[in-house]
Amino acid sequence: MSIPEPLEFARHWLAAWNAHDLEALLGHFADDVVFTSPIAAQLLDGSDGVIRGKEALRAYWTEGLRRIPDLRFEIVGVYAE
Length: 81
Known about the structure:
This protein is mainly α. Helices cover 44% and strands 7% of the residues. The chain has helices spanning 6-18, 22-26, 40-43, 54-67; strands at 34-36, 50-52. It is globular and about 35 Å long. The chain starts with 5 loop residues before the first helix and ends in a 14-residue tail after the last helix.
């Protein structure tokens, strides 16, 4: 697996988020991903803030986008190393 160029990766990530393209975003994660978010406990019943598995991450982000349908991000800075 190659390591992506940081600014190119950040731009792709930003474009996918701003398009609400969950499949593009989830493509960066393994099926057994473990994702930690303090907001998850508020959005998903029974969550302890830890999302386990790609399907659970999809459900978390889907719910977040349902609640904030105009969610947009911008790149402030990209740092590598």
